[in-house]
Amino acid sequence: TNHFNIGGLMERGIRLIGNGQAPVHLYWKDLLKMIQDGSLDSSIMLSHRVNIDEMDTLYQKFDARADNLQKVFVQTRFSDPPAPGTPALTSWK
Question: d(Cα 81, Cα 93) in Å, to the nearest integer?
C-alpha cells in the first residue's frame, strides 16, 4: 500500500469501490489475436503522438484536460515511424 494507512480506512468502515486494477489477464490473449489478425484496430484510441522532449508540456496539458488528449504515444529515438491512420507528431514548441 506504499505506506498508506489502509487499516485506518477499515477501522472507520470506509469502502473503496472501483479502484482495483482491470482484469487484463482475462482478455489480453484474445485481444492480441484480434489486433494481430486485423479484426480490432487499436489505433483508434490514440489521440496524439508527442516527442519525449515535450513530456513536461504534455503532462501539464493532460492534467488540465486540454487539447482533447486521451491516449498519447510518446515518441523516442527508438520509435518506429507512425503507422498509417495514427496521429502525426504533435509539437507545442
Answer: 20
Which sign does the torsion angle of CA 32, 37, 39, 41 carry? positive
Say if residues 16 and 9 touch (Cβ distance below 8 Å): yes
CB count within 10 Å of CB 2 equals 3
CB 34 within 8 A of CB 41: no
19 three-class SS? coil
- What pairs with residue 72 in β-bridges? 48
pLDDT tens digits for the chain (93 residues)? 577 787 888 888 887 777 667 788 899 999 999 999 999 998 888 999 999 999 999 999 999 999 999 999 999 999 999 988 899 999 998
Count CA atoms within 13 Å of residue 11 on its CB side.
4
CB 85 within 8 A of CB 43: yes
The answer to whether residues 82 and 74 touch, using CB atoms and an 8 Å cutoff, is no
